[in-house]
Structure formats: C-alpha cells, structure tokens
Amino acid sequence: MAIDIQSIIPYLKRDPLYHQFKPFSASFRVESVTEEQSSNHMFEYVPVTVHDVRGLEKPMDLDVNGFCYMKQKTSVTSEMANTIATYQELYFEEIEDFLYNNFPQYSRFECMDLQVRRRHPDFPNSVGKRVEFDQPAGLPHCDFSPGGAVIQMSEAFPGQDKHWKGKDFDLLNIWRVLKGPNDDWPLAVCHCKSVDTKKDCATNDALYLDGFGENWLMQASPNHRWYYMSGQQPEDLIVFRNTDSFGERTRCFHMAIKNSLTVCEPRESIEVRVVAFRDVM
C-alpha cells in the first residue's frame, strides 16, 4: 500500500540578496557573517506532499525523470559501517558491476567517494554537535552544478584532466539504507520535469578549510513533485543524476525529509558517487 506523507521543505528564499551575492555555506566560521552562521542562506519553509513510489503504475527512469529505483543485494551491512574503509573496495566493485549490468548507455564507471550516514537521535537539533557519522542532508539540492562537476573531477582524478575534459559524462549517486524497513528521514527525490532550472535553481558555493565546491540549491515552486519509498530495504537502490558534463540532461534535486509517521530506528544509509562516461575515457 502506498503511503504519501506530509512534510516541510526548507527552500532557499527568493530574496533580493541573491541578485547581488551568490549563496554560500562554509564548514568553518566566516567572520563577515553575523549570528555565528557560516552561510548567507535564508529559507522559506513550504509544506509539501511527498508521494510514495510504491503507488506508481510506471517506474521512474534515470534519463526521463532524473532518478530510478532498482533492486540489488549487497554484502555490506550496518555492522561493517564502523570500518567501511576496509570494505570500500568490495562495495565499489559491487556498485560498478551493478551499473555495467543495468545501464548500457554508459561505457565506463569510476567510483569517486563513499559516505555513510547515521542519524543522531537528536538530529536535526544535533547540528553543530560533534557526531561520529555524517547526518542526513536536510536541504533540497544537487551535489554538483556543471561547474562543480569540473571541480569534483579535478579533485577525484588529479593530474588526469586530459582523460575527462571535453568528455561526455554524468555524475551519479547510488543510495541505499543499511537497515530496513526504513521510514526515518527517508531520501526524497524531485521529478526533474517539475523543476524549471532557470527559475527554481541557484548555484551555491560550498567552502571547506581544504577546498571548495559548487552545487545547486532549490527555490520553491508549487509545480515541484516529490517522491520517496516507504519501508525502504537495503536491496532498494536509488540511482540519480546530479549533473552531466554539458549541463543538458535530467538531474535530481534531493533531500532527507522528516516523516512524522516514523516508527523505526534512526536511519542508516550509504551512498556512492560515481562518474559515468558515455564515451571512452
């Protein structure tokens, strides 16, 4: 049975500030920003209905919708997450084999990084506290803009620019929970056809002590259509596109959403970010 849920999305506010200054967030204190916030983000909190994909008659498609739900068993368990570096090579191999077997439009896959998230019981009030694992990402975003893709590729493949610059590639995420069935802060994805990228998207600088990146944040529109999967199990994969090298294909804004119907333990998840080439590297 499909279970649609009601939630609140913190969209980036449509404020005149962003006509003059680019949105940014930093993982360190920025002296020029007041109230000890290392960001110039302002938010508009919008109630939305998030539709359960279990109620869809037709499955979503990566190249049409920007995301898709698929099945794949994994040997990686929640217990392994504490020492995931030991199992990273194994998991990368699993993911690459899965992609080669299911996405023939690509000629080559390279896993770039891996992230394990374990929600702290106090999240989102745990923000700013020292936690062992990364927390759910609670803003609607794409991990990379087209410009951010260039930055990411330079960092992921240092000194190999000649092998990817000018190539046709996508930056994909492969996301799953480590325990199920999960309904706690599930990952919500937005149907790309419901997003006007010229009106609803803002490029954002992500600043770190050792570097920087550029991603996309989302501004509100009544046209946006959001989805999630109720009772997600570890074999339920979400594959979605953040961007592509030419900025022309479907992309998937996504975020973790609060679910007032949650009855399970705090969410644990693992995601891999992959570069998928459509021509030979």
UniProtKB/TrEMBL annotation:
Taxonomic lineage of the native organism: Eukaryota, Fungi, Dikarya, Ascomycota, Pezizomycotina
InterPro entries, sorted: AsaB-like
Molecular function terms, GO-annotated: oxidoreductase activity
Stated name of the protein: CmcJ-like methyltransferase
Family named by the database record: Belongs to the asaB hydroxylase/desaturase family.
Species of origin: Mollisia scopiformis (Conifer needle endophyte fungus)
Taxonomic superkingdom: Eukaryota
Listed PANTHER family: BLL6449 PROTEIN, OXIDOREDUCTASE AN1597
Residues making up the signal peptide according to the UniProt record: none
